[in-house]
Design goal:
The protein is an alpha+beta fold. It is built from eight helices and four strands. Strands 3-2-1-4 form a four-stranded antiparallel beta sheet, covered by helices on one side. The longest helix has 47 residues, at 66-112.
Length: 187
């Protein structure tokens, strides 16, 4: 609706003639007529007086749909807030689920895992050398084997042919013989 149509409609609702409204706003009847016909428009001061006389906001008088815009913005803001809250709830629930899984896994792992690092077996350690190259060889009845400074070929040879994890004295004898046969020595 246009400004002139609003002035006309509101003036009639108030039961005012053009002349009566003109007196309130301090303009002539002809000016009111021109405003209602859309020929001329009130200045800002006259708009203030019109809004008071017709008991309506300037935005409503000018047909600025500010109320609906505000309601729409508030509605959109509420919708966005609702979406954000839902996303945060999903993230929170996911976090709680992961936390429960982690705690459950930690409990199960600590209860069910074998005692890694704790060797309940016998072991031997020997220092051997061939051609001025030193090796420290460790073997345990639990299947533990380590040969520092050994090449992978030497490690495989020792492990596959000379080590008996169930009989460490036999393993000690076999490794001594291996190094002795290759012009080396073990202590």
């Amino acid at each position: 609706m246009k400004l002139g149509e609003n002035i006309l409609k509101l003036r009639k609702q108030k039961g005012l003639s053009q002349e009566q409204l003109g007196e309130i706003v301090d303009v002539t009847r002809q000016t009111i007529s021109n405003w209602e016909l859309g020929i001329t428009y009130p200045n800002p001061e006259q708009l203030k007086l019109l809004s008071k006389a017709l008991n309506i906001s300037i935005d409503e008088l000018l047909d600025n749909d500010i109320k609906n815009r505000l309601e729409e913005k508030i509605s959109n803001t509420e919708k966005l807030a609702g979406i954000i809250i839902k996303i945060l709830k999903v993230i929170g629930i996911g976090f709680v689920i992961l936390l429960v899984i982690d705690i459950t896994a930690l409990i199960l792992f600590s209860i069910l895992r074998p005692n890694v690092g704790i060797r309940n077996s016998e072991s031997i350690e020997m220092e051997c050398s061939i051609q001025n190259k030193d090796y420290i060889i460790s073997v345990g009845t639990d299947g533990y084997f380590n040969c520092s400074n050994c090449s992978s070929e030497l490690q495989n040879d020792l492990k596959n042919n000379y080590i008996d994890f169930s009989d460490l004295s036999k393993t000690l004898e076999n490794i001594n013989n291996y190094f002795k046969n290759n012009n080396g020595i073990c202590e």
